[in-house]
Amino acid sequence: GESVGLHLPTLSVQEGDNSIINCAYSNSASDYFIWYKQESGKGPQFIIDIRSNMDKRQGQRVTVLLNKTVKHLSLQIAATQPGDSAVYFCAEIWNSGYSTLTFGKGTMLLVSP
Amino acid sequence: DAGVTQSPTHLIKTRGQQVTLRCSPKSGHDTVSWYQQALGQGPQFIFQYYEEEERQRGNFPDRFSGHQFPNYSSELNVNALLLGDSALYLCASTPWAGGPNEQYFGPGTRLTVT
In 3D, which of B47, B51, B114, B112 has the Cα closest to residue B86? Predict the structure, then answer.
């Protein structure tokens, strides 16, 4: 499949561990944030989102934390599984009405059985 | 229900040539956005189409143009190809009135310029 992970920061974990992926965003005026998962040969897939008026949001096995003071997002994945291996991107939106995404650099997550 | 589809999957072109990439949005979606993803980078927004008009544009030269058809499908055209245009081109669709979390991406077209 198509590789998107060349030269990306890599996080290697064991199956069952908790993973934390970090992202610094660029625009203090951004009002909406999304985490995407991109597997080899596929387009980005929505994981979880958070609005700028929130600090934390939980989904199934995933939690997103937002620190607006330092313009930082994190994605926590509980009980990481081999199927979680992929490249993860954070994306910000400056104007929610247009859905135009500005993506961060991405982190490759490698999960060993 | 088919998701976002793109064609072709892979394409090889020579510098100076022109290329057309195609996208069919997810059923029920009327807005199409195009992104360029260089190897090892995050996707970069090119432009967005709604009601057959370009609604927003990112920082890309005029060599990049697009079109949306009445059935909401879209084309991305790139003229005078440069080596730096080699990338994965992603199409994303969403309902115009929908939220950003309703944006779905296709698998992309890998363009190689030699």
Answer: B112
